[in-house]
Amino acid sequence: MTTLVHGSDTLTRDALTVLQPGFVGTTAPDWLLRRIGEGLSSVGLFGRNVVGPDQLARLTAQLRAEREDVLVAIDEEGGDVTRLEVNEGSSFPGNYALGRVDDVELTRAVARELGRRLIACGIDLNWAPSADVNSNAENPVIGVRSFGPDPDLVARHTVAYVDGLQAVGVAACTKHFPGHGDTNVDSHDALPRIDVDLATLHARELVPFRAAVAAGTKAVMSAHILLSALDTDRPATLSPQILTGLLRQELGFDGLIVTDGMEMQAVAATYGIERGSVLAIAAGADAICVGGGLCDEDTVLRLRDALVSAVRTGELPEERLADAAARVRALAAWTQAHRARGAGSVPGAAVQEGTAPGADIGLVAARRALRITKGAGLYTPVSSAPFVASFTPVANFAVGDETPWGVAAELDRLLPGTGSGSFDAEATVESVLAAAGERRIVAVVRDLHRHPWMTAALDGLVAVRPDTVVVEMGLNEAEPRGALHIATHGAARVCGRAAAEAVVGTGDCRTPARAGAKGPGS
């Protein structure tokens, strides 16, 4: 255990206040409750902390019994990145699906309902939405987490999402500033670099963030990416030019700046989490997110002591730390006021059919996002239990590999006895055929355009079994294949359900849609 740097109670409390740590377990450990009593103002929750809504509500009540105004944050984007439903898959489609529908009122309604569920579980800060413009289809970490590749589309849906969350008292944290969409490296693994000029950044990456700031997003999360046009030395999270100069001064953002996870290799491998945290606060960040990987008391104390020591040595101005802590407390006060008014229980206006309180808005949205891009006019629906062959790429850290995805479970609900198998880069056509036997094959892929092994396996399979149904649950960038090609635009559980309905013919499969055009349910 580290030794506390001696200093004033105010200084040490401020250093604790700016931390947003995670922990292990489905109940709060004693050390966490003790640090909350000493000044820790925020806690971050991850999939490992969640069993279900009742357990989660008890956990957040346990935290607030120690301190009523503690901020409880979670990374709940819906779609592929879910913590509320980590064990079964999300009830809400993700950003890419919503962007494909391009109905801002639907996006607002989805965010509002998601916000109600968060509030019911005692969560009041959501590290969402992703406002990244997915301009690089090879991006390994954003993809379907983005509303799409068009800056204006991303901007209007980011605003709708922020509005929906905050209308029910959940603070939105728009991320990953100043835009992670044009990267081909995952910042969990290394430092991505974007080398475009300022004009491109302003016309593309910054458009959704300007809109989110204007819409009143309560928080913004920084990205661990190097943008050479803005700062040639430091990633955005550690850059005064980007956090203070661009976000605070140029864009006029006055809310809470939260860092992405400081244990991610883009920062930790070069600076270490202690020095990285000091540099982030000095650059203009207000809250240090740590806990996706590091989640123990020793980490919290090391970061607290590093901040106190930096103030004592003059590396970090005490006024900057005090300002950061004040912003954390101000957001906590905002969320506490909303909880006191019971904002999460107040139904929003029904803006269209299927969005009234109690409607399964997630399924409504997933059905509308579905696109059938080939063969619908000639398609014979699957009428007996098929075999689902899921071609499974390695999941990125944000999505994780613990959340189920695909269509097998939903097809089995409609056609009991459905078989399934998961196939990786070693898959062969022969292995799939052997597993399937005589059953009709439903091949499920994710970002087919990014995986040559997947493309080769699927093309070989379709050549031998042309009646194969193909379901793409990632970016729909590859050419359509199979007797029926279904694009769900995300791998949430509800997307799988919408696809299963189309496979068996209970969805609208009558009219084939052009690739990229609005399809059934639009």
Label the structural class.
alpha/beta
Radius of gyration: 23 Å
Number of strands: 16
Summarize the biggest pleated sheet: 6 strands, parallel
Chain-averaged pLDDT: 88
Helix content: 25-40%
Q: N- to C-terminal separation?
A: 57 Å
- Proportion of strand residues: 5-15%
Low-confidence blocks of residues: 1-7, 344-358, 509-522
Question: What would your notes on this structure say?
Answer:
Helix 1 packs across helix 12, helix 5 packs parallel to helix 6 and helix 14 crosses helix 18. The chain is 40% helix and 12% strand. With 522 residues, it is of the alpha/beta class. The N and C termini lie far apart (57 Å). The chain is globular, with a radius of gyration of 23 Å. The strands form 4 sheets. A 6-stranded parallel sheet has the order 2-3-4-5-7-9.
